Amino acid sequence: FQSQSEVTLSPVHEPVQSSPEPLKTGVIEENQPYPVPEFTPIDFVPLNGEEEKSFDLYKAARTVSPEDVFVDPKAQPWHKFDVKSYIDAGRIKNKNDAYKTAAFNQLVSDDVPMDREIPDTRLGTCNSVVWPREGLPTTSVIITFHNELRSTLLRTIISVIRRTPSNILKEIVLVDDASSDPNVGRELIKINKVKLILNRKREGLIRARIRAAMIATGDTFTFLDSHVEVNQDWIQPLMQRIKENPRMVVAPIIDVINKDNFQYIGADAFLTGGVSWAMVFRWDWLSRHEMETMDHTVGLKSPTIAGGLFSVGKAWFHELGEYDDQMDIWGGENIEFSFRVWQCGGEMEIMPCSRVGHVFRDDHPYDFGKKGSNHVFVKNNNRFVHTWMDEYSTFYYGTRPNARSILPGDLSVRRHFKEKLQCKGFDWYVKNVYSRQHMPERDSIAWGHAKRGEHCLTVFPLKNPQPGIYGKLGGGNCNQGINNPSFQDMDKQSLVLKKDTGLFQQPTKVLHDGKEVYENKCFGSIDKPPKDGSKIVLADCVDENDHQRWVYHSVNLKLDAYQDLCLDAFQMGNFRLKKCANKDSQQFLFEMLNI
Ligand code: LR7
Ligand code: MN
């Protein structure tokens, strides 16, 4: 037990809270002393009180007391684990509580076998390739959880043990993030290779993962959510890619486990990770050409990752500074990590031959603290927007004007890593990594889609086409605006209002010498001069443009030279100029404002 003291990196900063049933001290495996994490504090000279506090938090988040780590020297192979007692201890009596703990169907989950077979969802030549089991890096699978169902958690662990070659699977590090029943995690150390860190106080998944990384010993770390099932040969493509390039961060394709009936469904393979200007993760479709030429056995460059399921080299993860320990509970760390990896000299790929199913749900079944979930997401996002996005933060705040009211807090530790690794700027990232992203125009007042009630301003074709006129303006169901992955093809709703010229425009596909190109066309009154009742059409922009020059007055769109005429949602597919009045049909809200 002498080795215990070496585990504590520095004094534990937080008092250990007493729980009603005090848990025993962690057990150290005989013959295998508890590993001392390779932790070198960053070279950091605090300048003021805030920075000093940040550095203390940085250290505290990376300090794991041996009292909080549990392993069982008498652990057994998984098939000796008493599954029935483990699951029965958590069964619900009342059917109405099926979704209460986890927001997915516990009644079904508890009866789905822990070692069930799932369909092999890989495409292309993935299942005819012989994936080598030797000569690959080892991995520590890291799973953090807060009030996870016993059955989904155990199925995750058993699927990992069954479908990962044992020479690659170094260990499974669980982090119980202060779940209300500590036995859910505690009982699992009876299974070989499972270690448990107990968070005595809720840290959120981001700090929970940092803690796991401090004690994990594999050559690589593989993070998983606590409700997944890994598929056939899932780990080899990931490990092989990291072996080829130690700065590569790799993710599987994330299949879907239905939250109601637990069916396992293959997900689309033709997607890469993206992000909206609101900094919400999204999937972007590949182009038709990319789909047709795709080789599933090769990594697919991905600007971002979903966050829950990925592998990264241990050394690279530490060199990068793990995660931002001042991000709470949930959200944003995946986008932050993606920007950091790319901007600081790494790469990210999805390996389509690696498949892992995840139970998707609609809500978070857990608590976000007194300020609520929105405050937590926005603060987490603001932290990385300020660290990584440079002047592109305008686009974020344009989409999320309210985000300005929440301060990101001290960022000195994160900026330290940015300097130390000599990371590139966001401009480089958007041009070289995420060229698929749509760029709002900078010299504009407003852009994106414009909403009128439930509907969005939309261009419709004319019944009788006229030369130089490309459509009329009306209202239609909203697509996702700027955040739509295939924005270029669905541009019937993407609008720009120019700052100086007052032109209200849309990029429109036109034929030029037989080639399709985008040109800005202008909205204006069909009548010259405009009058009450004039139709609004999309036409070539002209110099004599009294009928095309607009101003945006609070929520009204008016013609600059005719201040008593306002755009009016006259009929659904047929907007007109009408006398300005304080009514709903004249109020338009843009997706982004340049404020
Ligand atoms: O306080 C908490 N402590 C935790 O340990 C809250 C959550 N958690 C655990 C939780 O038990 C789960 O295992 O953290 C994991 C993720 O939380 P979920 O499953 O409630 O959320 P999610 O599936 O929406 O999470 C996605 O986004 C998160 C943003 O912070 C993380 O990056 C998750 O890892 C990520 N999950 C995936 O990417 C899975 C695929 C989803 C897609 C696309
Ligand atoms: Mn999840």
Please outline what is shown here.
Its main location: Golgi. The chain has helices at 4-7, 49-61, 83-88, 106-109, 150-163, 183-186, 205-215, 235-244, 288-292, 314-319, 333-343, 373-388, 393-399, 412-420, 426-432, and strands at residues 69-70, 139-145, 169-177, 194-199, 220-224, 228-230, 248-257, 264-265, 271-275, 281-285, 300-301, 310-313, 347-359, 444-452, 455-460, 469-477, 495-498, 504-512, 515-525, 536-539, 550-553, 556-559, 562-571, 574-579, 589-593.
Bound molecules: ligand LR7, manganese (II) ion
Instruction: Determine the oligomeric state from the structure.
Output: single chain
Taking the alpha carbons of the first and last residues, their distance comes to 61 Å
Q: Which second-level CATH architecture of the largest domain applies? A: Alpha-Beta Complex
CATH fold topology of the largest domain: Spore Coat Polysaccharide Biosynthesis Protein SpsA, Chain A
Strand order of the largest sheet: 14-15-16-20-19-18-17
Average pLDDT taken over every residue: 89
Q: Given the structure, what is the number of helices?
A: 15
Number of strands: 25
Q: How many separate domains?
A: 2
Top CATH class of the largest domain: Alpha Beta
Give the uncertain stretches in residue-range form. Answer: 1-36, 485-490
Q: Biggest β-sheet, characterized?
A: 7 strands, antiparallel, barrel
